[in-house]
Amino acid sequence: MPLLRIPGLIDAHVHLREPGSTHKEDFYTGSRAALAGGFTFVLDMPNNAVPILTEKLLEEKITLAREKALCDVRFYFGTNGKNIEEFEKVSDKPEVFGLKLYCNHTTGEMLVENPDLLEKVFAGWKSAKPILVHAEGEQLVTALRLAEKHKRRIHVCHISQASEVELVRQAKIKKQKVTAGATPHHLFLTKDAIIKMKGYAMVKPPLGTEADQDALWTGLKDGTIDIVETDHAPHTRAEKEKNPPAFGVPGLETALGLMYKAVKDGRITHDDVIKFLYTNPKAIFNVPDQPDTYVEMDPELAYIVPQSGFETKCDWSPFAGMTLYGKPQSVVLRGRRVL
Ligand code: NCD
Ligand code: ZN
Ligand code: ZN
């Protein structure tokens, strides 16, 4: 059978860790992981060791990526609620695709909890580019309310609980400008994984119940959840085996294979895969065309996720041992073969 050709995929949520934590990942290894997974365009989060809160830090990061990345990498700006005056310096830059706001504790030092500061963030981001929130449970209620009040576009990152899916569903029914993403780990793992994998299965938001997982799949099918975003968050094995462990799992190299497993299992169609990993993220984040860019693979061809040997520097996967489908066999970016 001839190989199937699909567009270069878009991952709207990665942590490539540079600058500051290059023992976990850097723009070279992270972009190689992206290409191995069929992604030619990734959007990198600002929760670096020194958070990306100023135009200067952003420019330094852009330069590093330009020098080292093998695929297209673009960025979200960060906020701690006290850098509002930087917003208008960065929001029109073509390298910036939105503002990231952390409403819960997670990796990095960017938590905004104070209601006055939250209000200032939503009031201050005047761009049409979305505000992306890490907001779990009650924090999501607050974030949706503030986005509505200030008429801002909001993207709900890594939605994980059934109740959160319902919040987004209701907001969409009210015609609020909201989009949402689900991660492969929340779609394919439940909190039972923690028994076997311990720290390796610890992630923010935490893995949910089977009922949460069912709600995510229903949300994808009915349009409540728009995209699949990997939240590729590499940490070393040593960091995952510590007590407490670092939170986050790598995901770039397994996302496509998991989605074709979902096709095999009859949960979604091939067209859904393209919608969640290309068409919808392209539209939501206004990702420019990458001409003559595509991925070739056989979605019927099974492979087993290995224990190691990945492109990501952390070199492990929470999906090791699983049978997936459709590993990219070649990737062409702007006419040049890159995998
Ligand atoms: C992410 C990380 O390690 O940067 N961790 C995680 O558990 N998801 C941060 C985040 O996305 O919240
Ligand atoms: Zn997060
Ligand atoms: Zn993340």
Keyphrases for this structure?
binds zinc ion, TIM Barrel, 35% helix, 14 strands, globular, binds N-carbamoyl-L-aspartate, alpha/beta, eight-stranded parallel beta sheet, 339 residues
Broad shape? globular
CATH class descriptor? Alpha Beta
Poorly predicted parts:
none
How many separate helices?
Answer: 12
Largest sheet: 8 strands, parallel
N→C terminal distance: 20 Å
> In which range does the helix fraction lie?
25-40%
At CATH level 2, the architecture is Alpha-Beta Barrel
* Rg calc: 18 Å
> By CATH's scheme, which homologous superfamily applies?
Metal-dependent hydrolases
- The whole-number mean of residue pLDDT values reads 98
Structural class by sheet pairing and helices = alpha/beta
**Small molecules (ligands, ions, cofactors) in the structure:** N-carbamoyl-L-aspartate, zinc ion
Tally of structural domains: 1
Give a count of the beta strands, DSSP E runs of length 2 or more: 14
Widest beta sheet: strand line-up = 2-3-4-5-6-7-8-9
Instruction: Return the CATH topology.
Output: TIM Barrel
Describe this structure in words.
This protein is 35% helix and 18% strand. A hairpin with a 2-residue loop joins strand 13 and strand 14. The protein has a single domain, classed as Alpha-Beta Barrel (TIM Barrel), CATH 3.20.20.140. The longest helix has 16 residues. An 8-stranded parallel β-sheet has the order 2-3-4-5-6-7-8-9. A 4-stranded antiparallel β-sheet has the order 1-10-13-14, with no helix packed on it. The protein has 339 residues and is α/β, with parallel strands linked by helices. It contains 12 helices and 14 strands. The site of one zinc ion has 5 residues, from loops. Pfam families: Amidohydro_1 (PF01979). GO terms for molecular function: allantoinase activity; metal ion binding. Its cofactor is Zn(2+).
